[in-house]
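ARCHIVE CARD
SHELF: 3
SLOT: left
DATA:
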Amino acid sequence: MSLITPDFGLLFWMTLIFGIVFFILAKFGFPVLTEMVRKRQERIEQSLKDARDIEERMASWTQKEAKMREDARKGQALMLREAAEEKNRIIADARTEAKSEADKLLAEARTSISAEKESALRDVRREVAILGVEVAEKILREELSGADAQRAYLEKMLDEASKADTIK
């Protein structure tokens, strides 16, 4: 037996053992291995499909989130605009109300001042009239201190009254 050329018997037994081992592996080992590889391949494909679905959902969620953010920004801008308009309206209403109140107070003050002025003018006229009568009374007393002066004054008054009656 040489190392380089094996004997026929050795080749026969090696081929027979190889065939038996191959048959056992083909009957029991390869189907198990093939099934495991197939299951693993299915699991990998399912994982890839799930990953694609998750990516699609994430993209959809990202789009929804971006849309929600944009809607929130628009809503915030709208609220701020409405708040500014409301502020301006309230300020305008307050100015209008303050102006009308001021006009009303000014009109009341003018009316009050006018009434006070008329009252003061009446009081001054009354005082002037009283003073005029008092001055006239003092002058007449001095001028009419004698009986002759009183008669002359009465005659003068009667003449004026009779002239006034004839003119009418």
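SLOT: right
DATA:
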Amino acid sequence: MPELPSETAQIRQLDSGYSRETRSLLYLAYRQEPSFAYLFESGRSGYEHRVKATIRALVKQHFLQDLPALGLFVADRLVGVALIAPPQRRLGITESWAWRIRMLISTGLRGTQRYLEYYHDVLACAPSEAVHVLPLLGVHPDFQGQHFGEQLLLALHDWCGQDRNSEGIVLDTGNGHYLDFYNRHGYQEIGEVEVGPVRERIFFRPNPQVSLGSVA
């Protein structure tokens, strides 16, 4: 059984008015992630700028396309965020030329190419087209280890589960620390992508009315 959150938090759907807070939180959540360290070359000068620029471009495009995002709040402070790409529109962000141009200018050709290859390799592991994909999901470092991740994930399950056209949720991680966490919450490993030296694991959680065998 998943552990209950140590403190009650509120879930709200986010709009572009939360763009700045969303970018700041996701930058802190992702800047030390192994996959990002490889994609944007943590050993080369300017790494933090490239991560910030990537997060900024992804968040901006997400809200420009009016895609859904859920926020977890504690005392009106945003402490967790999930960007959601629904089944019908999940390829829109990286196919946008505006997004690609912003990425090329801010992160360079190599970082842009690496990110696109990684993102499309992850999508290729999805069991079908009819899934929600979580391109970015994070909890503020100051609030990690307090079970807020469980509350955000459970809210995501409820939100995505209301879409009867969706067969479930796909997410990925290159951080081995999270493997047990996702397994405990009903995710099944369905694939693996090499991101340089990092093994990026792809997970799928079927909606309650769907079995993995029915979408394989």
